[in-house]
């Protein structure tokens, strides 16, 4: 099914339909799936390397961002009408996200994907997704090439700026301009 | 949305999950969708030409098959685990199908697709689908070229015998060997 023939047109689903599938038990709430442009897709499995990297990044961000931002590890973020990605790490505006539909797209300050086998999707459809929802900063940790790809200035079709950062690079996020971040903390 | 499919692995759905989506109102029971190899895909719209052919073929088959078979126009046919096509015309074992989900795959004697814009799909994924469920005869009415493509001898990956028939030709179905059918009736 992964090589789905191009002559088929998928029936796209909205965020609300996607939620109803979970309520109806068609999808399990714990299932590793995302809604990408109306398609329900499987997330790549978390490799061992990926897992350790994920922990290191979350720990670092929690420490340097303090109460300036919330750092979410496995958040499923409804971006209507038909996207609900689950970025590896989400940097959110610091407030309480209780149960229920309290998340607003503008709360998402930055999305981070740790890309190993998923590099093509993270730089392809995932990048388009975050850009069309105007997520100000999108970071891709390219594990294979050991670089951090920092995308900024989203517009409809992509990000206007891309910086490739090595282990010694530093950068700031658009929404948190006075917190200097260390690229080395994201890389091996 | 059709562009992103090659990068991602779609989350496949079973026939039972597909039915639960209808029960939960995620999908409308009247929606023109099919389940093909776990993917929920949109059916091509019925063109004016297609509509007339559909009526002519259904009428012809109803007349020549009499009580030897049932001719269904818009039947959604659950073929577990993860296909539920809606062939333009289905030729079924003659009995009462009114009560509940009691359809069995072996009752589908032949499937007919009327192909205009959907020709590639009907000769590709649809042929594979009917073959893997061992539907004995699969007919594609190719409106673009004015021919009837008769598929027989299904196996796991496709049909072994594929005959292109023209106006004036005759043929029989494997499940109804003594009823001679007229190709001209399919190519109005």
Element-level helix/strand string of chain A: HEEHEEEHHEEEEE
Globally, the shape of chain B reads globular
Share in helix of chain B: 10-25%
- Computed Rg of chain A: 16 Å
Strand order of the largest sheet of chain A: 3-4-5-6-7-8
Tell me what the CATH architecture of chain A is: Alpha-Beta Complex
The arrangement of helices and strands of chain B along the chain is HEEHEEEHHEEEEE
List how many beta strands of chain B DSSP finds. Answer: 10
CATH architecture of chain B: Alpha-Beta Complex
Supply the number of structural domains of chain B.
1
Give an overview of the whole structure:
The complex is a heterodimer of chains A (188) and B (188). Chain A is an alpha+beta fold and 188 residues long. Chain A has a single domain, classed as Alpha-Beta Complex (tt1808, chain A). Chain A has helices at 15-23, 48-65, 119-123, 125-132; strands at residues 33-36, 39-42, 70-72, 89-92, 108-115, 137-142, 147-154, 159-165, 170-173, 176-182. Chain A has a six-stranded mixed sheet. In chain A, strands 1-2 form a two-stranded antiparallel sheet. Chain A has a two-stranded antiparallel sheet with strand order 9-10. In chain A, strand 7 (147-154) and strand 8 (159-165) form a beta hairpin. The radius of gyration of chain A is 16 Å and the shape is globular. Chain A starts with 14 loop residues before the first helix and ends in a 6-residue tail after the last strand. The model of chain A has no long low-confidence stretch (mean pLDDT 92). Chain B has one domain: Alpha-Beta Complex (tt1808, chain A). Helix content of chain B is 21%, strand content 29%. With 188 residues, chain B is an alpha+beta fold. The relative contact order of chain B is 0.13. Chain B is globular, with a radius of gyration of 16 Å. The mean pLDDT of chain B is 92. The termini of chain B are far apart. Classes of the chains: A alpha+beta (188), B alpha+beta (188). At the A-B interface, helix 1 and strand 2 of A face helix 1 and strand 2 of B.
């Amino acid at each position: 099914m992964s090589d789905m023939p191009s002559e088929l047109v998928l029936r796209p689903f909205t965020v609300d339909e996607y939620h109803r599938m979970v309520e109806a038990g068609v999808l399990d709430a714990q299932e590793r799936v995302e809604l990408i442009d109306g398609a329900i897709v499987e997330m790549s499995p978390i490799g061992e390397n990926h897992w350790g990297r994920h922990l290191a990044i979350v720990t670092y961000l929690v420490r340097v961002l303090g109460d300036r931002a919330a750092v979410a590890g496995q958040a499923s973020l409804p971006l209507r009408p038909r996207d609900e990605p689950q970025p590896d790490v989400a940097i959110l505006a610091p407030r309480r996200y209780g149960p229920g539909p309290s998340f607003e797209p503008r709360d998402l300050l930055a999305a981070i994907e740790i890309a190993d086998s998923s590099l093509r999707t993270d730089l392809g459809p995932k990048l388009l997704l975050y850009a069309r929802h105007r997520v100000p900063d999108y970071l891709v940790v390219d594990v294979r090439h050991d670089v951090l790809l920092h995308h900024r200035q989203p517009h409809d079709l992509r990000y206007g700026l891309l910086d490739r950062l090595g282990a010694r690079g530093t950068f700031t996020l658009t929404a948190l301009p006075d917190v200097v971040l260390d690229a080395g903390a994201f890389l091996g | 949305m059709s562009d992103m499919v090659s990068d991602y692995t779609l989350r496949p759905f079973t026939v039972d999950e597909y039915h639960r989506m209808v029960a939960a109102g995620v999908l409308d029971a009247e929606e023109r969708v099919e389940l093909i190899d776990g993917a929920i895909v949109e059916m091509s719209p019925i063109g004016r030409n297609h509509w007339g052919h559909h009526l002519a073929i259904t009428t012809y088959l109803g007349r020549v098959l009499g009580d030897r078979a049932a001719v269904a126009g818009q039947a959604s046919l659950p073929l577990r685990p993860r296909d539920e096509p809606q062939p333009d015309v289905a030729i079924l074992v003659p009995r009462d199908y009114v009560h509940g989900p009691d359809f069995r795959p072996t009752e589908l004697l032949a499937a007919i697709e009327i192909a205009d814009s959907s020709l590639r799909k009907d000769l590709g994924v649809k042929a594979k689908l009917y073959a893997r469920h061992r539907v004995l005869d699969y007919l594609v009415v190719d409106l673009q070229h004015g021919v009837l493509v008769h598929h027989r001898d299904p196996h796991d990956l496709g049909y072994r015998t594929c005959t292109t028939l023209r106006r004036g030709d005759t043929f029989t179905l494997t499940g109804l060997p003594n009823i001679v059918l007229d190709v001209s009736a399919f190519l109005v």
